[in-house]
């Protein structure tokens, strides 16, 4: 099954969930549980907390399949948005008593940026990801990456530049601390 689901699959999955098909939830879980858990773990830094967020996210999806609007984006993005929102809420709740509001917000911003970076890397096309992995993990320059990937140096530079441009968006702060319309329960993600 391809990583990036076509919109038709997204709509069919939503319809199956709305009909209460338990098999659909299992299929959705198989497809996106590692994404949800990874994002939650990245934000919380806690395996148990990530497990709880994963259960909460799929429980929410099961109870509110109509909250997803295919016109707003892919099902994968919607699920990731719910996971990130739940994890950030759990982090805020856990940290509320342990530090100043500024420290908490800085930790939340940092965790959000890290989770967005993880999501961007896992969502980017394999050729871009492969070039970035060579450059970052194996310390290859664009010439070495081109040779390793058996592509032209110009193509290696293009892939690295595009991959880094995508990653640079991870630090961009959202306009508001709210989910886009159709991405979460009413009132979910609103500032406190």
From TrEMBL:
<keyword id="KW-0805">Transcription regulation</keyword>
<protein>
    <submittedName>
        <fullName>Sigma-70 family RNA polymerase sigma factor</fullName>
    </submittedName>
</protein>
<dbReference type="InterPro" id="IPR039425">
    <property type="entry name" value="RNA_pol_sigma-70-like"/>
</dbReference>
<dbReference type="InterPro" id="IPR013324">
    <property type="entry name" value="RNA_pol_sigma_r3/r4-like"/>
</dbReference>
<feature type="domain" description="RNA polymerase sigma-70 region 2">
    <location>
        <begin position="28"/>
        <end position="96"/>
    </location>
</feature>
<dbReference type="InterPro" id="IPR036388">
    <property type="entry name" value="WH-like_DNA-bd_sf"/>
</dbReference>
<keyword id="KW-0804">Transcription</keyword>
<feature type="region of interest" description="Disordered">
    <location>
        <begin position="170"/>
        <end position="192"/>
    </location>
</feature>
<dbReference type="InterPro" id="IPR014284">
    <property type="entry name" value="RNA_pol_sigma-70_dom"/>
</dbReference>
<dbReference type="InterPro" id="IPR007627">
    <property type="entry name" value="RNA_pol_sigma70_r2"/>
</dbReference>
<keyword id="KW-0731">Sigma factor</keyword>
<dbReference type="InterPro" id="IPR013325">
    <property type="entry name" value="RNA_pol_sigma_r2"/>
</dbReference>
<dbReference type="Pfam" id="PF04542">
    <property type="entry name" value="Sigma70_r2"/>
</dbReference>
<comment type="similarity">
    <text>Belongs to the sigma-70 factor family. ECF subfamily.</text>
</comment>
């Amino acid at each position: 099954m391809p990583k990036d689901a076509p919109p038709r699959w997204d709509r069919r999955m939503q319809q199956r969930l709305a009909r209460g098909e338990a098999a659909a939830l299992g299929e959705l879980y198989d497809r996106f549980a590692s994404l949800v858990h990874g994002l939650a773990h990245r934000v919380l830094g806690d395996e148990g907390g990530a497990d709880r967020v994963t259960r909460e996210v799929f429980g929410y999806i099961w109870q509110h399949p109509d909250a997803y609007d295919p016109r707003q984006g892919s099902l994968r993005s919607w699920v990731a948005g719910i996971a990130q929102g739940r994890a950030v809420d759990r982090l805020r709740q856990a940290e509320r008593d342990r530090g100043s509001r500024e420290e908490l917000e800085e930790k939340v911003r940092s965790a959000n940026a890290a989770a967005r970076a993880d999501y961007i890397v896992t969502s980017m096309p394999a050729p871009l990801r492969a070039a970035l992995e060579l450059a970052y993990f194996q310390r290859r320059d664009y010439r070495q990456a081109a040779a390793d990937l058996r592509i032209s140096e110009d193509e290696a530079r293009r892939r690295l530049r595009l991959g880094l441009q995508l990653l640079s968006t991870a630090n961009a702060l959202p306009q508001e601390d709210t989910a886009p319309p159709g991405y979460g329960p009413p009132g979910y993600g609103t500032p406190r």
